[in-house]
Fold these 2 entries.
Entry 1:
Amino acid sequence: MVRHSMMAAGIVFAAFASLAAQGQVEKAPEEYQKLMRQIGPTAQGLAKKTDHAEIAKDAAALRTLFTQVEAFWKQRKTEDAIKFAGAAQTAATEIETAAKAGNDAGIAAARKTLTGQCQACHTAHRDKMADGSWGIK
Ligand code: HEC
């Protein structure tokens, strides 16, 4: 009898361990969610703007925000996310440089690179939680 329940406990534990290994989705820390909630509208706003000075300003803000995103993933030692956050900073810098030069084609190209980082990181590390909000994995 005792032996039987110990075995059952072992099976339950193994199931938890394998879920953890798969990277269960969890609630993101509030500071992290705040960063994403600033990044979202800033990136969307930038896409609609035509004034080069304003685009440059938004791009600089995005670069700073992604510096903080990178620091977060460095703490978690998540290599691919660190890379996406780094590439997002580079793309933001390219947008800023192109905007200051009045180079619309350059802005468009760098924006595409930036959006690619959003998508890549979201595919790998963002998932819906049971309550429908976004979680981190
Ligand atoms: C390095 C990884 C990474 C990159 C790059 C990234 N995101 Fe996120 N993002 C996440 C994760 C993880 C979540 C889920 C946790 C959360 O909601 O904060 C998220 C959530 C979001 C949310 C939902 C926030 C909420 O909870 O309401 C928005 C909006 C968002 N990201 C926009 C963007 C945009 C736009 C970009 C690119 C310009 C981007 N993100 C780039 C990882 C990333």
Entry 2:
Amino acid sequence: MRYVRLIVVIVAAALCQRAFALLPANAIDLSKLKISEKQKSEDLCPVHLVPSKPDGPKWEYEGVKYRGSTPDAKDVFRKEPAKYVEAHKEKLWENNFIESMSRIWCPVTDQVNPGGLEEWFELDIHWESCCTFCSQTVSEEHFPAALERLKRRALESYKLSGGKYVEGAASPVEGAIRSETELAALTKDAKLGAVAASDVCNPEPAWLKGAKLEPTYNGGVATIFANRCLRCHRPGGLSPVDFTTYQSVRNWTKNMQASLVSGAMPPWPADPAVGCFSNALTITQKEKDVLFAWINAQFPRGEGAAPAAPMFSEWNIGEPDEVLTLPEYVVPKDTVAEYKELVLETSFPEDRWIVASELRAEDPFLVVEVDAGPLGTFYPGNPFETLPDGVGRLLKAGEKVSVRVRYVKEAGFEAQDETKIALKFGKADAIKQKISDSRVAQTELKIPAGAEKYEARAEYTVKSDSKLVSMLPNLRERGNRLTISAALPGGETTQLLNIPRWRYKWRMRYQLRDAIELPKGTVVTVAAVYDNSAKNTDNPDPEAEVKADATGETLECWLGLVPK
Ligand code: HEC
């Protein structure tokens, strides 16, 4: 059967290179794929539908060999052979179908792929996928849902093929291949990935209202990219993947569908059912439908010319009023991770109100966290903040700002970075509210090596009647889940944020669309679950016990509060 397995993978690989996400799922020609016959008739007890025992009773019926899992299996079988024969055939088909399809059917995106890039062992099944995003999106919850989908497909293909492994027959997986609409429905059922933030919180933007978007690059796709993706996908943007021209987009279409279906792109890890955020990165179903139609049609360019790509200024916050540079610091040769307190001496002759700020590290792999007090707190992947109208951070005249930087690198060489912070100032009379950032943190973490579910929490009691405008939580690679809730003095508890699958890469600032009143005495709880096992693909070292320090983990959150 290794032979069959190999053919399956090679054919799928060949198909996948070209076809994965390029063709509608129902157009992929799987007629050459053959499902495994790894489990033989006699390996499965026809009465109990579980693996038969090596010393179980053996018998033959209508030319087929059987073996039981209990001593009486043969006698039970003989009483109603037709019934057991049928159930056995179907279960055998299902098992073998799952055995082969789990290797070429991505559990996250629900798509055919050649496997081989990622593998998981879940539910006693060996899963494989080639989609680079899956390793970022996949969580334990995907597998039961994926198994259910494979079972449904097994049944459909069984009905179609009559359960015959006939060489050269029409595809044994026919019926497993679904149309795009069905795929979308399945994806919704299974609550896959991070769903795009709901349309309730982020209604159709003005540019989209009444827009006639065609599924061609020039006719609609470029407009969607401009509004939803180019902010990161452009030269100098957060991602090296450039979507500013038709040609450059074509280099990156392989994972387009998968990343949209799984919700990996645009990146926004918050559960859409909890809270409305003004800075949510979203895309509506309507736009996705245009993109899927374009993908399915193999990326037509369309008539005419593409709309001009929007101009982006050097900084996300727009033209800054001031750019400050952090003091020079050389990270010593043998250091692999450290917190360093630097002092940034500002020299403004009078108080300034900061309304937007942005960090730029030359090397975002070296400078991984920067807490710069009134200048802001930043992570790569989320390097800027624009405060709501009328809200400002106060920077005192001539203030010496203490900045805490976390550096991470390999041992063996010194490293240095020039990190800049760009600032935009507001007029004092336009600022109605001063924001203060309250840090909620748990310093007593002790995550055992290999622990799959380590829970920790941190609490903060609100000191005076306030309004919450933003939350900036931070966990590192071992973070798995995070929730923030508020227990109001009256006894009521509100959920403020839910991140079902923590992504170290996407440590976002969650700016509330409507500020939430938190009366004095409210207790805000930040609860996190960590996965320090080898199952967590982000985990740098599952063998290590981890504490809350520069090299280890963290549980912290900045609450942006303004007075009520
Ligand atoms: C906040 C920034 C951001 C936004 C907005 C964003 N992306 Fe991305 N995207 C990234 C980054 C960063 C990567 C690199 C992936 C990585 O490092 O994991 C990426 C990777 C991708 C890839 C994978 C390329 C490959 O084959 O490896 C695709 C496809 C993609 N994005 C599509 C989109 C689309 C489509 C949109 C808009 C609907 C979008 N992205 C919006 C930041 C963003």
